[in-house]
Amino acid sequence: MIRLALSDMDNTLIPFGNPHVSKRTLEAIADARAAGVEFGPSTGRDYHELLRFFQGDASAFQTGVMSSGKKVMIDGEIVSLSLIEHDPLERMAEMLKSVPDVFLVAYPADTDMTNPVWVIAADPEQVPVYQERFKFTPQMAEQVPEVPLIAATLAATSGRPACRFIDTKLSPAFPEFDIVSPTPNWYDIVPHGVSKASGLHVLMDKLGLSDEEVVVFGDAANDVPVFREVTNSVAVANATKEVAALARYHIGACADDGVAVALEDIAQAAERNTLPEFMLEEDARRN
User: Fold this and answer.
1) Tens-place pLDDT, residues 217-253
2) pLDDT tens across 19-48, in order?
């Protein structure tokens, strides 16, 4: 029986750019929790961004893996926290000052609903499109501020050429970090070895859950580490080819409330003390 369901946010639980999850998704989460199945995020987003997505309903994400594994919460309490190391991030910012098509965004650990960030080594004209896309409030800076940072990201403003630079030049120069793209032309910077998978292990250990009791939904590159770790990996229909190939199970697209439909199935199965139909049906096809 499934006891914990975790979901990526962008393009898995909510179409990228939508202001909040659907009514059906909120109802499906409530149904799952009422049936004894805990639900939470497995996401690169942090707490205040999630609060916006869930329209202020914090009950929908009291337990989960946030900020790409840097923050793990159980029942509203932080049980694991990894911050971004300042010195290598400052070295990265210095390197980017000579690279016009990549800029750095740093997120303070002490934040609020306006999602304040520092934008470093950027042409101010490049920022507004990302400000609107990721809903942050920018402050231009020449150096990385010496305050606790919960997250950092890279914007690849020229598309493929900038992505190639990040993948082949920047990433190898900073072994302190793992740099992964959750959405096109945008990269998360996380401490090496920290990921959604490492966060999930913390969560499972503290909750005393077995692998068979957990299901994880995802769609993109930052879901790959956790999909390699769990038995019950589930890809939405719009997932990347890599994630779809790794997934054991497949459901409808994000735009069609695929995760909400699966959560409804999980809630009904929990009441019967069985596995959900979408898992049984795909296992039957495989056999």
Assistant:
1) 999 999 999 999 999 999 999 999 999 999 999 999 9
2) 999 999 999 999 999 999 999 999 999 999
What is the spatial distance between Cα 175 and Cα 192, in angstroms, rounded to a whole number? 7
Angle at 13 between CA 225 and CA 16, to 5 degrees: 95
Global confidence as pTM: 0.91
Instruction: Determine contact, residues 143/192, Cβ cutoff 8 Å.
Output: no
Extents of the domains making up the chain:
4-81+194-286, 86-191
User: Has domain 86-191 been given CATH number 3.40.50.300?
Assistant: no
Q: What is the DSSP letter of 83?
A: P
* Both structure tokens of 171: 């990433």
Q: Tokens 């630079």 label which residue?
A: 165
Structure tokens at 139: 């402050």
CATH architecture, range 4-81+194-286: 3-Layer(aba) Sandwich (3.40)
CA distance 181 to 184: 7
